[in-house]
């Protein structure tokens, strides 16, 4: 093992690796902080704002899902507080017993039996349903969001499958706030941020902007658009400046704004457990195992998930990690408690967490020393090849929608059939009971779904495939170059368009989320 006190982590080799990775993954800037024993090291690379504002270690980022572990910790504190009360709660307390009118799922059993622990360990059976965040209103409350869950399909029985779902963290936030009568933001600040000296951590971008001493520290987020010449791309190249998403209900799922120096205090507390987290060891106990390797997973046959933490094994060491993402931003945190070691990386691109993985492996290997295990070396070689393939896919221009049609909808006839009605007959507002909707209009002979209410500034441009099948392309560069969405219209016997289905949730196996046309 190499001591970082003898050779600090940010040496010439590391600097060279960072420079290469920022270029390869098109990340404008990265801020990093490493905790090892009693020492803290930090360094910033690249730019906080293009073309020339340098990144700093006290720069503020939207950290997305790096909020989740603090939400789980806040709930753990509320559970401990309740032990001597007349109505104590535990990890096994059903959410429906705390917020019975609001927490209702599509399945009665899941409604009655989904516990706080189930929700925080992402084993409720409710998948991500990202469409809700794009097609739902940006000004909906936490309560509104939780009440919409009853209309979202469940795709696995309770406690049988790990399925990432930020909706469950919103539900826990609502339960926590109803139980205490205090906002989650206030609880985090009073119980975690202030005791740890996290003085430049906030619960929204607007709150961070309101602090005049911090306003200039807020980083700009970017998305790289490969191989396109868009008028909205900033002059420095093919980077698109991301507007901060405005989604009021995000709260405990991803609302925090912080910097690596502040977040390092949280990492140190996770390691030492002598402050706010004393007697809260259950937070890092794995609750469910899954076998799907995500983009920011270490290579391994399986992965655990605790309460806001991914649990990995790397070279015999138990490692805890989580990534966070918001449009134009991504972050990554690791800690190895047995080695009194951890680090956090924050970047201003949606690919920054992927870009940080080689740096994470580099730091872990520096900590553990060289490996002579040929199996491990072979496994890591395959891992880096897979990561390079992911990078090449993300950094390469996507084919035109017309080229992708036979691959996305292979069952359609060739030549394609015409749509049965003039495009004007498809116009209208289409609604889903989960408070999600869009309005279809014809623009220059093409159907376009407009969503002025969305938390993300975007539209969906429809390309006809065959008959009543279309492919919808999200226009917002900040969302990345996402593949087109299959869409299917239902026309009744009277020749009236009644609804449209979107294939937007992978765990539904190609089934549609249906939006009914408003009369």
From TrEMBL:
<comment type="similarity">
    <text>Belongs to the peptidase S12 family.</text>
</comment>
<feature type="domain" description="Beta-lactamase-related">
    <location>
        <begin position="14"/>
        <end position="355"/>
    </location>
</feature>
<dbReference type="Pfam" id="PF00144">
    <property type="entry name" value="Beta-lactamase"/>
</dbReference>
<dbReference type="Pfam" id="PF11954">
    <property type="entry name" value="DUF3471"/>
</dbReference>
<dbReference type="InterPro" id="IPR021860">
    <property type="entry name" value="Peptidase_S12_Pab87-rel_C"/>
</dbReference>
<dbReference type="InterPro" id="IPR001466">
    <property type="entry name" value="Beta-lactam-related"/>
</dbReference>
<dbReference type="InterPro" id="IPR050491">
    <property type="entry name" value="AmpC-like"/>
</dbReference>
<protein>
    <submittedName>
        <fullName>Peptidase S12 Pab87-related C-terminal</fullName>
    </submittedName>
</protein>
<dbReference type="InterPro" id="IPR012338">
    <property type="entry name" value="Beta-lactam/transpept-like"/>
</dbReference>
<feature type="domain" description="Peptidase S12 Pab87-related C-terminal">
    <location>
        <begin position="414"/>
        <end position="517"/>
    </location>
</feature>
